[in-house]
Amino acid sequence: MLTIAIANQKGGVGKTTTAVNLAACLAEKRVRTLLIDLDPQANATSAIGLEGLAGQSIYEPLMGGASVIEKVLPTRFEHLFVITADLDLAGAEIEVARLDDHLLRLRHALAPLKNDTSFDFAILDCPPSLGILMTNALAAADELLVPIQCEYFALEGLSKISHVIEQIKSVGANPNLTLAGILMTMFDGRTNLSNQVAEEVRKHFGNTVYTTQIPRTIRLGEAPSFGKPIIEYEPNGIAADAYRAMAKEFLQRHKGG
How confident is the model at residue 23, as a pLDDT? Predict the structure, then answer.
């Protein structure tokens, strides 16, 4: 199982939208996928059409009180499973920070799944902050995927998260962590700004940037309120096409096809 953290310390950049829709599109391609909601707000949980169940989040495994395997739930989509979030995770920000191995709690919690053949990928949807849950995700992940909005502060945000990656590596929490993907979101090809930002990001990060760009659409913004990924809410729309293309590119990067 390959673990992918989807993270950006800035909110409103399409992070949860990308986590949910990438997971759904991979499942549509019959790729066994586990979506793990690490945000106490549980937006990924509701966007997939579920409610956070008390005691069902990854909080107890983080604290060493339960096995992560007990927390995995099926969804209505074949090949897609989820670990939901709940408000207990807000407490984890404080409680985990007090522990000696606070950076490695999630890595240890996910260890039973690491060599399990039940899943091909685990997608970690991180909170929009540089707190303990996000740093735990970076310490547990094989790779980081960063969605960024096509706006002027995009490169500044990438600079900050690149710095955090180096910190995680330098303290030995995850020396092999790589920034394996940058996804341009809320792209509007009609504006100079979107095109300029995309060009600038590609100039700095090269092939790390996905060829696929996710458009800004009303339907994509509406879908989470109906508890549906975009391929279910508007399966033939441009946003669904974009996330399917992104999932295909994701698989090409990881499996060569």
Answer: 98
Predicted confidence band of residue 92 (pLDDT cuts 50, 70, 90): confident
Q: Pick from 14, 7, 19, 9: which is nearest to 129 by CA?
A: 9
**CB of 133 closer than 8 Å to CB of 92:** yes
DSSP string, 109-144: HHHHHHT-TT-SEEEEE--SSSSHHHHHHHHH-SEE
- Tell me what pLDDT residue 246 has: 97
Q: Give CA 188 to chain center in angstroms.
A: 22
**Residue ranges in 125-237 assigned as alpha helix (H):** 132-140, 154-170, 192-205, 218-222, 230-233
CA separation for the pair 257, 249 (Å, rounded): 8
Q: For residue 121, what pLDDT band results from cuts at 50, 70 and 90?
A: very high
Q: Is the full-model pTM beyond 0.85?
A: yes
**In b/e form, how buried is each residue of 198-237, taking b as 16+ CB within 10 angstroms?**
beebeeebeebbbebbbbbbeebeebbeebbbbbbbbeeb
Q: Find the helix packing angle between 192-205 and 154-170, rounded to 10°.
A: 30
> For the chain, what are the domain ranges?
2-214+242-255
Residue 202 has pLDDT above 50, yes or no: yes
The CATH number fitting domain 2-214+242-255, selected from 1.10.150.120, 3.40.50.1820, 3.20.20.10, 3.40.50.300: 3.40.50.300
